[in-house]
Amino acid sequence: MKILSLETATAWQSVAILDDEQVLAKQDQEAKGAHAKILLPTIDRLFRATGLSPAMLDGLVVSIGPGSFTGLRVGLATVLGFRTITQLPLAVVPTLEGMAWNLRGTSMPLCPVLNSRRGELYWALFQWESDDRLVRLVPERVGTPATLGQQLSGPVMLYGEGWETEQAAIRMAMPHTVTITEVAGQEVKPSAISIGLAGIARLQRGEQAGIGVSPLYVQRPEAELRYEESGGISPFARRQEKVVRKLKNRAALAGGRTRRKA
């Protein structure tokens, strides 16, 4: 199964094209609020590198959150634009669950942690029962580092940008019974490869995102509330329309070149 996988939930943008568990192409980079500018060019580079086109894929996968509100809207609107044009099945994967796939098969409970706003964190707790079965022990939460520390118990693997920036405050609030194993290297970052693998598993089970899919914010963004009050068109809707227009234009240009050759 060939899929395009997008991870835009944080400042670390990750894009990959997978064929089942084989990575055909990938690019990871710092985005720092520039997802809207660099995501489509990155996707184009990967398609050129593999010789594939959207029509040659079997599915689409995207990280659904929690994370950066802007990044999530850009990533989801982009794949929805691709889905509109290609009619490919789409799987959405919670960002923290995707991070648990970074450590697939690990026996210890996993607690990926991401930064939220105003000194708060996103986290969830997972346990691999086998290489193919991941159980969510605690659903996605948002709160202070102290709140996270107080909710931990027993041995746990803590990792992610939120752990790196707030580990002192988390440790201060933890019970003495907690034993921490830290994770280093690329496993601490959200990855389009892990998101893609989790998404392929969903698609193979027949789990496809519906028409009204929206980002998993955990808390509602202030921007969303302002747009509801104003009655304006959201950045999410504008982004989806932009992707659809670009794909239609490319298809029209390709069709014109084909007719001229004939």
Q: What is the percent of helical residues?
A: 40-55%
Biggest β-sheet: count, sense, barrel? 5 strands, mixed
Distance between the termini: 33 Å
In DSSP terms, counting alpha (H) and pi (I) runs of 4 or more, how many helices?
8
Number of strands: 10
Rg value: 19 Å
Give the strand order of the largest sheet, numbering strands 1, 2, ... along the chain: 3-2-1-4-5
Oligomer: single chain
Helix and strand run = EEEHEHEHEEEHEHEHHH
User: Which overall shape is indicated by the principal axes computed on the Cα atoms?
Assistant: elongated
Ranges with pLDDT <50 over ≥5 residues?
Answer: none
Q: Beta-strand level of the residues, as a percent range?
A: 25-35%
Helix and strand composition category: alpha/beta
Query: Overall pLDDT, averaged?
Result: 90
What would you note in describing this structure?
With 262 residues, this protein is an alpha/beta fold. The protein has helices at residues 35-50, 69-86, 95-101, 145-151, 161-173, 192-204, 222-230, 235-261; strands spanning 2-7, 12-19, 22-30, 59-65, 90-94, 110-115, 121-130, 133-143, 155-159, 179-182. It has a five-stranded mixed sheet with strand order 3-2-1-4-5, sandwiched between helices. Strands 8-7-6-9-10 form a five-stranded mixed sheet. The longest helix has 27 residues, at 235-261.
